[in-house]
Amino acid sequence: YFTSTLSKALIHSIINSMSSHSKPDKPIAEITSDAAADEIAEREAKQKSEQQAKDRDSCNRYVRTGLNRNVTVQFLIEKLTSMGCPPPPGLIKCLDCGDKPAAGGFGVVEEISPLSPSKPDNNVKGSKKDATKSNDVCAQSQEKINSLLKSQSEGRTKLRLLPEIFLCQQHLRDETHAHEAMVHELIHAVDMCRTKMDPMNNCIHMACTEIRAENLSGECNWIRELGNGRMDSFVGHGAKCVKRRAALSVKANPNCTDKADEYVEAAFERCFKDTFPFDRHPNLR
After folding, report:
1. 144's torsion region: left (phi>0), alpha (psi -120 to 50) or beta?
2. Is it the case that residue 94 has pLDDT exceeding 80?
3. Mind listing the pLDDT tens digit for each residue in 119-166?
4. What's the DSSP call for residue 284?
5. CA–CA separation, 161 vs 277, rounded Å?
6. DSSP character for 22?
7. CB burial class (10 A; 0-12, 13-18, 19+) of residue 205?
8. Before 87, cis peptide (omega within 30)?
């Protein structure tokens, strides 16, 4: 009986094994298709990596020429130093900003313990903590910033803005565009150095510094606006452009989104006239 039972079990096992091995292999066409898809994905990844390297090299070159040859950039760097906020080495970084539709940005949001006695540092002297973890990836995603702001609104944490300038390497059209972006972000640095600005939580502060940066950077020059099909009139168009672009920036702050246009309107008259640290608008010199 034992032998008979063992034999039946053995025979059953052999049949199952044969059955499992007799399943048809994947069709050749399907294998070929998978191989082709893998090859395409590998080629696209390589092309993306090569393009990122190319964009990064171009951006780094634009930063060097801006620091070495652009008189407006040099003036702002010197002004920050004379104001007691010397920019640290590597203040301006070239990053991959993904799909973020911007030429650059200013500041990294840092989380502070609610019980920490640390006070926000409004200077551009940097911080011992490097909030940017990689030279290749944009410092913080919008989702991350939104999450931090939500935590602060719920009283679970406190936030401060660390001075840092980044240029979005894949969105820079040319050297002029890069230099305008550098001037724009350096204006924010000047504002942060000279005032107790809190643009994350005070929407009027954010509106004011955005108005000044858009106005003084040259990003609203009539040639660009004409090329973009936005020139409906030469008279007063500069102010309209500044308002439009400043409002877009303010809307990117979840704390200010709903009333961004109102904040810009409230701050506009005073901040549009404020040309500090220039004696007059740099485009009129």
Report:
1. alpha
2. yes
3. 444 455 444 344 344 445 455 555 665 676 666 666 666 655 566 899
4. G
5. 22
6. T
7. buried
8. no
